[in-house]
Amino acid sequence: MTWKNEDININGTSSAKCPNCGASVFYNEKLGKLFCAMCGGLYDPESMKSAGRIENRDTADAGSEEDNKQEFVCDSCGAAVVTDYNTSATFCAFCGSPTLINRRLSRAFRPDVLIPFKISKEEAIANYLKWAKTQKGVPKKFTSEAVLSKITGYYIPFWLIDADCKSEVSGTGQKFKGENIENYEIDRTLVYNVRRVPFDGCKKISNTLMEAIEPYDYKEIKDYNDMYLPGFFAQRYDLSALDMMDIIRIRLDNYAEGIVKRLSAKEYDYFKAVGVRGAYSDNYDQLYALMPVWFLNIEYEGSMYSIAVNGQTGKASGSLPINKRRVHTHALVSSLWEITKYILLTALVPALGVALLMFLIGNKGGDFDWFYWMMFFVLWAVALLSGLIFIVPHVRKKFSDSSFYESVTIDKAPNIDEYIDLTNGFKMDIRDTFMYMSTKADDDKNKEFSKEPLSVKVLNKIFK
User: Fold this and answer.
1) Over 60: is that where the pLDDT of 462 sits?
2) Contact (Cβ atoms closer than 8 angstroms) between residue 345 and residue 463
3) Stated pTM of the model
C-alpha cells in the first residue's frame, strides 16, 4: 500500500493506521515519528516506512504463570518490587520505611533478558568500602557495618536501546611532511550504529548513579527466567522507554563527539574537532532487561544518599555527603606534608652548595665553621622566601578547593567504545579541504605562549 501525505491526518480524527496491528498511529514530537501506542511501532510520517519499535511492557494482568511470584509495595513511597514466595522483605531500600504491603502479583512481569548476580553481598560491601576510602571527608556513617548490612540485591529494570546514528562533524587536521605541515579543514558525515545502550527505567534510582556503575558484560546476558529471582528483588519499571526519549536522545547525541575522536580522522597526524553541527539518532529498538545491583539509600542530616554496586562486575559508586571537619583535617595534614617537603627541598640546594665549597676550600675550623653555617642559613632563607610564590598557592588550594566541600562526584558513564556496533560497518562521507601550508617552526611558535616555565613544571610535579 502506498501512503500519501493527505492520508496521514496527524491532528484530525481520521488518523493513519499501524501497518503492524491496525491501531491508530499519532505523531510523537520527541521522536519525530508516527507512533502506535498499541504495539510500539514507529513509522516515517512521509512514507510510513518502519522506523523501529518502542513499546510499553507488562501492561496485561498477571496470568497463571505468575502464581510463583509475590509483590511488595511500600506504603510510604509507593515503590513496588517483585520476588518469589520464599523471599521476604522487612524494609524499603528506597525510603527506609518498614511498612510494606505484601500482595499477589497484579500485573504481568516478563522482562526479555537479565544478567544474573555474580557478586555476593559481602563482596559488594568490600568493594564499596574500597571505593569509599578513595573519597575525602566521607562521614563515618557511610562506612559503618550496621548501615551497610542493609544493602539489598535488586534486579533494576533497564531499557537496552539500539539505534542508527548520524553526526555532522567539523574541525581542523594537520599532516606532517618533514618540516612542512599541510593544514586541512575537516567536514565529515559519520553514520554508525549503537547497540544495547542501557537506560534505567526506575524513577527512584538516579540515572547518573546507574551510569556510574556501567558497563555490564553482555556476554553473560540470559533470557529471562524466574529461577534467577529467589533471594533477590526485582524492581518494576515506572519509566517506559518512550517516557525516557529525551534522556535517550541526549545521551546518544552526546556520543557523536566520542565517535569523532574514536574513528573520524586517523589519517591526520594532528586532529581537533571544532564541533558537532548535528547529531541524529533513529530506527530505535529496545530490550526490556533486568540488571543486578546491590543498592542502599542512607539518610544523613535530613537528606537521602544512594550507594550502588554492580552485581556482575563489582564496580561501586555513590552520591555521598562530605564531612567538613574531616575535610579540614585532611587539608591540614596534607598541607603540613607539603610544607615539610618544601622545607627539605629548599634546604637541599644550599646544603649541596656549602658542601661543595667546603670541599674546594677545606674545613679549617674556627671562623670557617661559623662562615659555612652562616652561608648555609642565608642561602636557605633566600630559597625559602623566594619559593613562597610557589608553595603558598599550593597550600591555599588545599583549603579553597570547593570540590572538597561538595558531595562525592559520581563517575561518568562509559564512552561510546562500550556500545558502538561495527558489525554493520561504519560509513563516513569525507569533504575535507586543503587550506594552506605551514612549517613546524611556525606551528611551534604559535603554541609557545601556552608553555609553562621549566621551574613551574618541576614544582607542580613535586607539589601536585
Assistant:
1) no
2) no
3) 0.70
